[in-house]
Design a protein that fits this description.
The protein has about 270 residues and is α+β, with helices and mostly antiparallel strands. Helices cover about 25% and strands about 15% of the residues. The chain has helices at about 5-10, 55-65, 75-85, 95-100, 185-190, 205, 225-235, 255-265; strands at about 20, 25-30, 30, 45, 70, 100-105, 115, 145-150, 155-160, 170-175, 225, 265. The protein has a 4-stranded antiparallel sheet. A 4-stranded antiparallel sheet has the order 7-6-8-9.
Length: about 270
């Protein structure tokens, strides 16, 4: 198991809720940009890599994918602010932990940048001329991957380049929802809803063609369909595109969902 997977697997398997950089005392925990806070429900994890090691963009992209996620992408200022502030305690005085790669890539010889997920680039946070050798990007057409540089002169900004990198730290974003229940799989692995025996960030039931939904009427997943689930349906009744209570997954909470809860009353089998 490689360094990246070993660190994240330890978290997924419950060995520790904290990721610790090898050889250092930096600690960081998985953070979710929750929907109730205006977010996208995705999880973001700072994954420390080896220091003083050069690498390629392809290696870093594949490392994130091997964990079940992808290098972080940013659709707007709000998402960028959430992630950079959530992980803003990274040690600025230590170049081995201060910088991390994100999922903005460019082909050699090209001046065009694109997200690893294929989504359109609608936002950027490149450093300006106030940042040392800025403005960035300033290594094209030779740079192939963007990274976040934590600078004393202008804060956290994007810079470009892979070769000669001091660190191989990643910001991995988890957004997959393999069973279509509206909840990101990574969070359900963390809270024990789904098992991930091989630590690859994908629920075992999705890999084994199993039924990850299990007991959909058990809205509050405790193994029993009871009054708690009824109360959730009542609280969400009439809501379109709800975050909870839509047992039949038809886009709203109505009498059909209430009937499904009542008809599946008792212990889930």
């Amino acid at each position: 198991m490689n360094t990246y997977r070993a660190i994240v697997a330890a978290t997924l398997l419950g060995a520790s809720p904290v990721l610790v950089a090898a050889g250092g005392d930096l600690e960081t925990v998985p953070v979710q940009w929750a929907a109730e806070e205006g977010g996208n429900g995705h999880w973001y994890v700072y994954v420390p890599g080896e220091c003083n090691e050069t690498t390629t963009a392809e290696e870093l992209i594949l490392a994130a994918e091997a964990l079940g996620g992808h290098l972080a992408t940013f659709a707007d200022q709000a998402e960028w602010d959430f992630v950079r502030l959530a992980h803003g305690g990274l040690q600025l005085d230590d170049p081995c932990t201060a910088d991390w790669f994100l999922g903005l890539t460019s082909s050699p010889g090209s001046y065009e940048w694109q997200w690893v997920t294929g989504e359109p680039v609608t936002f950027d946070a490149w450093g300006t001329s106030a940042c040392g050798a800025g403005p960035y990007p300033n290594n094209q057409p030779y740079s192939t991957l963007a990274y976040v540089s934590n600078r004393f002169d202008c804060g956290q900004v994007w810079d470009d380049g892979v070769y000669g990198a001091i660190s191989r730290n990643l910001m991995v974003e988890f957004s997959s929802d393999c069973n279509g229940d509206g909840i990101v799989d990574y969070g359900q692995i963390l809270d024990g809803t789904f098992e991930d025996g091989d630590g690859n960030g994908v629920p075992d039931c999705c890999q084994d063609d199993g039924d990850c939904l299990g007991c959909p009427a058990d809205i509050h997943p405790d193994g029993v369909v009871d009054v708690t689930d009824v109360l959730i349906v009542i609280a969400c009744y009439g809501i379109t595109d709800p975050q909870n209570g839509d047992v039949d997954s038809d886009g709203d909470v109505d009498s059909d969902d209430l009937l499904l809860v009542l008809s599946n009353w008792g212990i889930c089998e």
